[in-house]
Specification:
- The chain is mainly α.
- It has one domain.
- 59% of the residues lie in helices and 0% in strands.
- It contains 3 helices and no strands.
- The protein starts with 7 loop residues before the first helix and ends in an 8-residue tail after the last helix.
């Protein structure tokens, strides 16, 4: 499994992007808009509750 910490230059880039004013505003706005879960529990069961044994 790869970890972001294993790539210091990429991790630094993510930090620089996270600190940009437009990114900060976008994440703040998303918190105002996205108040409900995108996928409810029933949808999660359909999407992720299947495996090779349940699908024929």
């Amino acid at each position: 499994m790869q970890r972001l910490q294993d790539f210091p230059y990429l991790a630094a880039w993510f930090e620089r992007v996270r600190e940009r004013p437009a990114t900060v505003r976008a994440y703040a706005r998303a918190q105002e808009i996205n108040t409900a879960p995108v996928v409810d529990e029933a949808a999660k069961q359909v999407l992720f509750g299947q495996d090779a044994a349940t699908i024929r």
